[in-house]
Design a protein that fits this description.
The protein contains 3 helices and 7 strands, in the order αββαβββββα. With 167 residues, the protein is an alpha+beta fold. The chain is globular. β4 (80-90) and β5 form a beta hairpin. The chain has one domain: Thiol Ester Dehydrase, Chain A. The strands form 2 sheets. The protein has a 5-stranded antiparallel beta sheet with strand order 2-4-5-6-3. Strands 1-7 form a two-stranded parallel ribbon. Helix content is 30%, strand content 33%. The protein binds coenzyme A. Coenzyme A (COA) is lined by residues 62-65, 91-94, 120, 122, 130, 157.
Length: 167
């Protein structure tokens, strides 16, 4: 039985959306020197972000935007890439998801931060119409900080979008 609209909009904690994805870097993911392609990592970031967005909104979603991504350390063939995602904040039909990427070298037993990204997903129904998303409840200090920061980032995105329209 499908959830009613009221049930769909019951606020949910950030922890309900927390997701983790892991990939071993294979030669097909890398350039001729054996370093992971940035585009492949962006694809994984999109997927990891979508997992959190789906889990929170319990609906289909589309990626509306991705904020800039810095690649902090190189990742090599054979490395284990871990992507952690969760919903930072819900607006109305859109939600900001944060994705943090780590590389684990299981031979050297090291873990390094590779990249972080903020993506906005919009919830849609089966007909492609935008749908409202349940509020998210930040429960820890870090989640509350991310919630606040997501509000500021939305303002920056909107200002940037207005600026581009005027060009
Ligand atoms: C994203 C999309 C649904 C927005 O549609 P739209 O008609 O511009 O909708 P609106 O301007 O009414 O905005 C709807 C919501 O999306 C948000 N939004 C729209 N464009 C955005 C952007 N570039 N970045 C972040 N949020 C955005 C709005 O803030 C609004 O959020 P809210 O309801 O929480 O306040 C539409 O542009 C789309 O379908 N794009 C293609 C998405 C896609 O195919 N992605 C896969 C990659 S190709």
């Amino acid at each position: 039985m499908n959830a009613t609209n009221e049930e769909m909009l019951v606020p949910r904690p950030v922890s309900d959306s927390q997701s983790e994805m892991a990939e071993i870097v294979l030669p097909n993911d890398a350039n001729p020197l054996g370093a992971l392609l940035g585009g492949r990592l962006m694809h994984w970031i999109d997927l990891a972000g979508a997992m959190a967005a789906h889990r929170h909104s319990r609906s289909y979603t589309v990626t509306a935007s991705v904020d800039h991504i810095d690649f902090l350390v190189p990742v090599r063939v054979g490395d284990l890439v871990i992507l952690k995602s969760s919903v930072n904040r819900v607006f109305r039909t859109s939600m900001e998801v944060g994705v943090k990427v780590f590389v684990e070298n299981y031979i050297a037993d090291t873990v390094q931060h590779v990249a972080s990204a903020h993506l906005t997903f919009v919830a849609i129904d089966a007909k492609g119409n935008r749908t409202e998303v349940a509020p998210v409840i930040p429960e820890t200090e870090e989640q509350r900080r991310r919630y606040e920061d997501a509000g500021h980032r939305r303002e920056i995105r909107r200002a940037e979008s207005e600026r581009r329209k005027k060009k």
